[in-house]
Amino acid sequence: MTYELEEIKKIRKKLGLTQTELANRAGVSQSLIAKIESSRIDPTYTKTKKIFAALSDLERKEEIKAEQLMAGRIISIAPNASIKEAISKMKKSQISQLPVIEEHKLVGLVSESTILDALLKSKGKEVREIMQEAPPIVSKTTSVQVVSSLLKHYPMVVVAEEGKLVGLITKSDLLGKLYGG
pTM of the full predicted structure? Predict the structure, then answer.
């Protein structure tokens, strides 16, 4: 990320750092930070680069990751389960979609919409006959920006670690964590 010298104080305060803490992380003196923030000095390129690198690194660490957004409890359904069973699970758990898992692998997604479409068309008796393609899988360290972009195109995102599904993120989860707690 690129910064302007005038932004250092604002960014430092946003990150909850003192001048001394930023100076220590950047490998410069606290007095240099103070002079830059008060526009009393025009620092060298090398010193500026160190300060900006420290700020950038700290901002990345502050960024919200998929692990913080995900619901850890995965309620899923098998592809050979009946549509009636899927409806029952959704109703009982108060959710609108279920990942379809076969032999520990994500193979699809079934939602209220797909069930309604199937019932209106009298199509299918098993989940496998009506399921949609599997939603995208991300790692625990995927940024909130990537998750948000994916949720614009998919109803849910699945979080995996070392090939094992560990959580789900829906639009509702994302909005709840970011804006509602």
Answer: 0.66
